[in-house]
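pipeline/complex-builder :: batch 7 item 3
reading input block
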Amino acid sequence: MKLITAIVKPFKLDDVKDALKLAGVQGMTVSEVQGFGRQRGHTEVYRGAEYTVDFVPKVRVEVLADDADVDRIVDAIAEAARTDKIGDGKVWVTDVESVLRIRTEERGTDAV
Amino acid sequence: MDTGNTAWVLVSTALVLFMTPGLAFFYGGMVRAKNVLGMLMQNVFSMGLVSILWVVVGFSLAFGDGGGWVGNLDFVGLEGLGDVEAVLPGYVGDFALTIPPLVFVAYQMMFAVITPALITGATADRLKFSGYATFLGLWLLLVYTPVAHWVFSPTGWLFKRGALDFAGGTVVHINAGVAALAVVLVIGKRKGWPRETMPPHSLPLTMLGTGILWFGWFGFNAGSALGANNLAGQALINTHIAAAAGMLGWLVAERIKTGHATTLGAASGAVAGLVAITPCAGFVGGLSPIAIGAAAGVLCFLAISLKFRFGYDDSLDVVGVHLVGGIVGSLLLAVFSDLRVNSLGADGLANGGGSALLADQLVAVGVTLVFSFVLSYAIAKLIDVTIGLRVTPEQENEGLDTSQHAESAYAMSELGAMGRVS
């Protein structure tokens, strides 16, 4: 089992969600986050004083997947989130040791 | 007694009262979220403390018959002012009031409430509440009431000398503006200023406050005609035009200098214009409020960068806007004042008047600057070394809301909701 984590532009969340549903993904977790990569922040001006804002608002999408589905899901996310402009984000995959569905106590791939 | 005049001053009293919560929102939006309640409280608290001080002794010190320098104790506890026939010292002949004395007391009370509240913008994020409360009371009695007596009361020495101040350019804005500078020099900079960023947490709140201030300022300036008449109408339109011109002046200047026209700039420029027209409102006419407002908008925008050059932390630019705007208005009055607008005024330089008015205005501005600065510094220093005027560094990090008032402004999350202790 793998955990797919994607950082995407906030306005792309709906596209990513639809693409994941199309790819057969049953559930996901999203959170509002801030950060920066190659895309830097922006400047704001208050009463003539300029401030830099380094952290850019992003959305983090987390999906648990079977090993066999991972490449397909990663591609679906990337395709949906891509604008070809700087700051499109990243997707990474990590190993997951165990998963438990709390209500049914299913474990492992059954719980994904 | 004139019922129409009375009705207008009653309404104006309510309008000016509304400016203080307006100011609270104007300032409150500009501070960080952990300090917004502290800022609102410092302003609203003035409505509590100053109102009581005013009826007990403040009005008497400002408008009692004590000669040119300060009032006296004749009106302590509003003694005798319930009588509609009571005549306030100096308010005879051309200056005779056509409204009940109590209405005048109430109207002037709202000026006394907002003036010290103006100072809190400069000292944002770091005043200890007990120290502030003490400062507020002492400043009202020792600084505000004498200056109000000199300038507003017909028995005051600056009034008699010929200095003009329709609604408080010296008494309110220069007085509070230079006091703000003095207090800031006593308590020092906010931790981390100017290296750390301390951006406004809610410019929508600031814009709401700007709207309330602009609205209430009609009572402040047009109400100072003390009648429902042509002069009030002139003061009202002057006030509105100057606010508009102030906004445009500031926006043009900041667009040229920083590349953007900002909402905070629009709000600040409007307030700068309103400040500058305050002394002039009932003495000028024609298109002069455009010049006065625009000059204030540009000059106040330039003035707010002075704090970075000289290193004083005037957090929300009370010096840059109220002190500078007040001086701009008080001096431009000597240029644009027009006897055709107000026969109790004078002609300024642009209307064939001599330089006598300019001299009187310079004296009024200079004396107010020195008196208010020295006394405000002394009061602040005295409080600072006794009960303390500034919060501890830990309390400053924590924010005024929880450290001074045990409250938070925004409960945005249900996570970690509170548990009841008692």
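note: Chain B has one domain: 3-401.
queue -> next item
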